Amino acid sequence: MSHSFDSGLSVGNMFYVFSDEGITVLQPSECEIRRHMKQTERIVATYEEMCPKGEGVSPQRCVWSSAVTVRDKYIYVTQPLQSRLLVVDIQAQKVVQAVATDPFPVKIIYDKSHDQVWILTWGNMDKTHPTLQSSYQGRKTTSQLQSSRLYLVSLRTTDVGGFTNEK
């Protein structure tokens, strides 16, 4: 996974584009860029860079794998090379938190009926240690996000049809 995907997510009347250069917020009805969050932009809760430069990697790029909207307030987007997901506050149009995941998160799903987030991780590029992680994060406010970590429960796949609780 040497390149990030160029993908978008529609939220309300805005469109979020995830690319090598960061996150771009577009307003399609007026054909204008509302905000561009660059790779070097700082995360509110930790002051880390949104897309840190990897060792020996040049130029600095963002790598994304999956994104979802949570309660029309947040976008959760996974960064497989950093083994984390970022929480974007839609109203503030800022990354407010980075949350550590199991290695190599590749897919994120939001179950609206249970207000629950599910993350599929591969463990490594060879997909030899896949896990599912789950959390009830959707109901937290921005201040709670900044003062607490997203709690993820990991499940390790034991075969194609079953899961065992790892923690």
TrEMBL record:
The lineage of its organism: Eukaryota, Metazoa, Chordata, Craniata, Vertebrata. Gene3D superfamilies: YVTN repeat-like/Quinoprotein amine dehydrogenase. This is Follistatin- protein 5. It comes from the Eukaryota.
